[in-house]
Amino acid sequence: MSVVVTVIGHRPEYGWIVTDGGWMAMSRDRGTAARAQDQGYGLVTDLTGEPIPGLVMTAASREHGTLTARDGADLPESPIGTRLRVLPDHACATAARHHGYHVIGGTGSTDPAPAIEAFWPRVTGW
Known about the structure:
D-amino_acid_metab_enzyme, D-ser_dehydrat-like_dom, 2 helices, 6-stranded antiparallel beta barrel, D-ser_dehydrat-like_sf, D-serine dehydratase-like domain-containing protein, Lyase, Ornithine Decarboxylase, Chain A, domain 1
């Protein structure tokens, strides 16, 4: 599972990439915060699902996410409008934030935007 976000700004003085996906899209759950390697709100990939080394969503306000590089990694070239995927730290907490899910094609695609094959509405209630 992933959440697609769009780059909406840069704060190079802080080493940040700012996105349009904050905790309303990702949840507030940071289950790895107490671990030796904190994954923040999630790891970041390109649209095909290829991980971007060292890039993590480290902070989130209600509607904005902050991506930062760690472990000596460089921030990737990411012009405003670039779409990325965030692999959430806690998938079920993130999935509960959405009304449904777009199912995309299999892995290994070189298409920058894999085709949506289905939409699964979320079943609610207990």
